[in-house]
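quick one, two chains, predict together pls
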Amino acid sequence: MVRIDSRDGLWPDPPESPESAAFVAAAREGRFLLRRCLACGKAHWYPRARCPFCLGETGWEEASGRGTVYSYTVLAREAPPRALAYVALEEGPIMLTSLVSCDASSLAIGQAVTLVFERSQNGMPVPCFRPAAGG
Amino acid sequence: MSINGRAYIAGAYEHPTRKAPDKSVAQLHAEVAVGALTDAGLTKDDVDGYFCAGDAPGLGPLAMADYLNLDLRHLDSTDLGGASYLAHVAHAAQAIAMGHCNVALITLAGRPRSAGHSGTAARPVIADAPDSPWEAPFGPTTVNLYALCARRHMHEFGTTPEQLAWIKVAASHHAQHNPHAMLRDVVSVDDVLASPVIADPLHRLDCCVVSDGGGALVVVRPEIARSLKRPLVRVMGAGEAAKGQRGGEVDLTWSAARRSGPAAFAEAGVTPADIKYASIYDSFTITVLMQLEDLGFCEKGQGGRFVADGNLIAGSGRLPFNTDGGGLCNNHPANRGGMTKVIEAVRQLRGEAHPAVQVGNCDLAVATGIGGLLGSRHGAATLVLGRE
């Protein structure tokens, strides 16, 4: 059995950007934000200042942090093993992320997962997912 | 206006090296340029258009144009990753059709093998890429993003690891005849499945080789092609497209070839059923399977059945593919496989492939490629080529 552990404090640091600053600030407080278009109303990922569907202006909103696994791959040869995944957020968009704190053999497409903020090496928040309680 | 018949591939050359630690990348570009021009029966002074992509050293096309001391009136450094060179052929044909050049030289070279690139290590983070703040920590490398596509394809369509393995098996059957191929041993489905899992569900033998080397093409206007001594390989149709995460509307079951392929067939006025030989960019086995579906060789979701049981093997299968052994077994210079896809298609159309894999009366071929990362953001380019 391959165990995928938390990597809190071990993730490579994400580059900083004016477009991610508010996300990072909220994440440090444990809040998970995504952006929704102020013109067409659609939520998107990854967050950007202009809507990828209509190029309208967008604004932040707090998301549930609930989702389901769209696809995943277990990288068992890496030390420690890890799992890259796309997760479909309850709000609609599908985001590239990683699954943590789980057994690789228990993972499945469609599985319910919950957001957990881990930290990068320099303490930046990294939005990961773990199996939902009871899921 | 169509490019069909407006330009011909007169020269093609694949560098025989697979490891070149003692040569510079510019030197390799120059060697393949010489090879393709010699093949065409042309010289450096005939070249008035030059095309290269991100593997070329220096700024865009400028450093290599200077290194080769070319006197140019048309330059293009469109970069679609490994699919660039397929797009370059189309762009060269467009430029020739518009009278902007007569003889277009396209070069590719690199030496990732000598540089120690493993193929699975994370590539350097491009800090100003808009996706990097959101994705860089997760180490989205080439193989793991393709694995995400394979997993989803299996989930939606019941595609199996055994079916993917047949793609490698077919490539290995062809590579045994290529003295330059990195991997010449014929492998079985069981061999593929027994190789180490790199990024679940992809095994080591689902992955292409890492090789040094390069290749070049010469595309010319029709009057020049007819004045040369080489068989006439006509550019009949082309398409290109890009696909990303679509704002979060991610769908990993299809590629941008869904647009580039039909566009190329339409311009050429042919259908997939007419194709005698197919060069399909094989960075990974899943890359081939998805392109076959997206080009219309079979229904979406039926790719696994299409490739199984040796159906891609020349001489016995219904669609001979990558008869040089492809990227899976032969060569993947500079981690960019589009160039060698065009070169083997030219060999087939000229009747110059190895006799053991030469397709009889091969007068119509397709070459197609995916560049970048299939599971996040990629480009596709497709060419339909014919022999006159």
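Chain B has 13 helices and eleven strands.
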